[in-house]
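Support request, please re-run this one:
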Amino acid sequence: MAQSSDASRRPLLSGPVLPWFDAGAAMLSSVVILPEQFYAFSAKDRVQDGEVALRRAILEDAIRCFQRQFVGKGRRVRRLAREAEEWFAADDADWPFSFVNICAVLGLEPDYIRRGLKRWCERHGDAAERVTSVRSFRFAA
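Re-run finished. Output below.
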């Protein structure tokens, strides 16, 4: 019986279990993988994604402010709509959050959006046909 207990304590395989494992481990021991390389997106990509999301939110808010002038009343609503309309009309490329720069980052054509807002305004601008609400929308990411 002593023999069987000694046999149960011995490893099933003696010697190197996987001879190629030692060579592979030696090769990989000198390889360093940085977190930026491991994860799909680096920290820089995440910052850029955040900046794009911010610009998208600014554009969405400006369109919403512009459209609310046809729904709401009051000085604040009119002031925000006027500011949004001036922002849409400006061709200033010096400011990072200007309309034309935001369109460039988002891959949108500024004149196309301007024409669309003008058509929307013509369609809903008549006081007799005031809209009762403004639809929320989101640009695709």
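Confidence is low (pLDDT under 50) at residues 127-133. The first helix runs from residue 2 to 9.
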